[in-house]
Fold these 2 entries.
Entry 1:
Amino acid sequence: MMSKKQTIEALDLIAEMFPDAECELTHSNPFELLIAVVLSAQCTDALVNKVTPGLFAKYKKPEDYIAVPLEELEQDIRSIGLFRSKAKNIKKLSQALLEQHNGEVPKTREELVKLAGVGRKTANVVTSVAFGVPAIAVDTHVERVSKRLGICRWKDSVKEVEETLMKKIPKERWSDAHHQFIFFGRYHCKAQSPQCDTCPLLDRCREGQKRMKAREGK
DNA sequence: AACTCGGGGCA
DNA sequence: TGCCCAGAGTT
C-alpha cells in the first residue's frame, strides 16, 4: 500500500501529465451539469456531449423536462443508452427540484443523493465542479487507477476507495486530483491497455511492476 | 454482493 | 458482429 507521502508523489507525476485536467462534460450552469452527469452514467462523456447541446437548447429549466411527455424526452436522449430509466429519473429529479428546492440545484451531497438517478459519484461531481466543494468522485477510472497504483486495496469498495483517497490527499487538492486521476485513467492507464511502457509512474506502480515481471518471465 | 439496464464506438 | 465502454437502483 502506498503511504500518504508516496500517494502525493504519484499524484504530482500525474498532475504533470495532465496539468489542465477538468470536467469534460459540456455545461454552462449547475442544472445543466447535474443533467449531464446523470446522463453520463454507464456511458462516455464524449457521447453525452453529443446530445447535450441540442438538449440544453430545448430544455432550460426543470419545468421544461416536466412539461414534455416521457416518450419525447426518451427520444431526445436515445443515443446514449439506458435512456428509459434516465428519462424517468430526469423527470422525477426536475419535479423534486421544483417542489423541494425552489427549482435550484441543492448544494450538499446529502440533498443531491436523494434525487433520482443521483448516486455518490454524481453528487460529488456536482458539488465539486458546480459549487467548488472539495470532493473526490470515484468513477471506474479513479477506482482502477487507485487500485493499480496501490493507493488502496484491490478489494476495497467504492466508498473505501474514496475514504482512502481523502485520507492520503490534502483537501485542497481533492478536486484537482479527482480530474487528474480521471484523465490518467481515461487517456493513459486505460482499462485494457495501461501503456506501462511509457508511464512515468511505472517504477512506483504495484500493477505496473507486476506486469513487467510477468513479461520478463516469458 | 450480484444483477440489470442499452446504444455507440471500435476491431 | 461481438466485445468494450461505464453508475444507479433493486433484490
Entry 2:
Amino acid sequence: MSEKIPRKPSAARQRQESRILRAAEQVFALKGFNGTTMDAVAQVAGISKQNIIYYFPSKDALYRRVLEDVLDLWVEKMTFDASPQAVPTTVIENYIRGKLELSRDYPNSSKVFANEIINGAPILKEYLVSHLKPQFEHDTALIRRWIEEGLIKPVDPEHLFFFIWASTQTYADFSSQIQLLLGKERLEQDDFDRATQFLTTMVNSSLTSDPA
Amino acid sequence: MSEKIPRKPSAARQRQESRILRAAEQVFALKGFNGTTMDAVAQVAGISKQNIIYYFPSKDALYRRVLEDVLDLWVEKMTFDASPQAVPTTVIENYIRGKLELSRDYPNSSKVFANEIINGAPILKEYLVSHLKPQFEHDTALIRRWIEEGLIKPVDPEHLFFFIWASTQTYADFSSQIQLLLGKERLEQDDFDRATQFLTTMVNSSLTSDPA
DNA sequence: GTCTATAGTAGGATAGAC
DNA sequence: GTCTATCCTACTATAGAC
C-alpha cells in the first residue's frame, strides 16, 4: 500500500532527466518535432532509447517538457516591466540586449520555439493566449503611456515588439544563414556586439528627437 | 529507338506538376520536410499518392523542386540594385515594401525557406554561398558607398540586411503568433500597412538627419 | 497516365529478464 | 533502473493491371 508513494525524485533521476532534456532540445531544435527520433535523442544523451522512454512516457511528453523549460527560461529572463521612474529608451535598450543574450546563450531554445510557431503553434497556442498575450498587452500599454507623456516619439507599439523579437531571434534561428554570409564558422561575441549596437542605435534614433 | 525521345512536356503534365507543387509547398511550409507525408500532399492536391510519385520520383526530389521554385520567385522579385541616381532611402524603403509584399502574398514560400534555414540549410547551403552571398556582398558594398558619399548616416551594412530580412519575414513565418497577439483570425492589409509604415519610418529616421 | 496491391523499412512503444 | 527482444503502425517506394 505504501510502496506507491513517490519518494524524493532522487538526485540520480534528476540528473538523467536533465541530461535527456538537454539532448532532446538540441535535436528538436535542429530537426523539428517530426524529424526527431527517440533514437537520435538517445545517442546524443548517451543513453538507450528504451531507457529514455522509462523517464519520459512518450516523444510527445518529452517535447512538451522541452517546450515548457524553454518558456520558463524566457519568462524568467525577459520581463519588460520597468520601475515608474525608468528611462524608456534605457528600458527598451536593455530589453533588446537581453533578447540578444538569449539568442547567444540559448540558440537551441529559440529554434525549438521557432519551429513550433512556424508549424502553427499547435501546442503553444493555448499558452500564448493565456500567458504571452496579457504580458504583451501590458507592455504595449506601457509604450502607449510613454508616448502620451511625451517621453518617446509616437510609434506603433505592437509592431515595435514584433520588430524586436524578429531581429533579435534571427541571430539564433537563422544563424546558419548569417554565418554563411559573414563567412564564419560560428557567430562570435563581436557579431552580437555589432547587432546590439545596430539595433539599439536604430531604435534610439527613431524614438528620441535627434539631439545632433 | 525513337520512342524514348521526350516530346513536349505536355500541357496536361505541367498542369499536374504545378498542382502538386502548390500542394507540396503548403504542406512543407506547415509541417516541415519530415512532417510532410506524400499522402498529405496527395490529399491537398486531390491526386493519389502513387500518381504523385509518377510525376516526382521521390519525396526528396519534390522538396528540392519546391525549394528551387521558392528561390526563383525571391530572386525575381527582390533585387536590391538601384540606378546610380536613385535616392538611397527610397531604395531601402522599396526593398522593405517588397519584402513585406512577399510575406503577404507568399507566406508558404517564406516558411519553407525558414524551415530549411533553421534546420541548418542542409540543401540550400550550397546555393546560399554561390548565389546569395555574392548578391549580399554587392548590396552591402553599395550601402558602404552611400555612407562614404554622405548620402546616409553611418550604419552597419550587414546587420541592416539581417534586420530587414528578419522583421519582414516574421509576418509570414511567425504569423500564427502575431495573429494570436493581435486577436485576429488572419493578418489583413491594414496590418501590413502598419508594418510597412513602422519599419520604413524607423529606418528613415536612423539613416537621415532628422529634418524636424 | 492512373489505379490496386504490396514490399520494405523506420520508428514509437511495450513486455519482461536481469 | 537498464537492457533485449519484439510488436505494430505509418510511410516511402515499387510492380504490375488496366
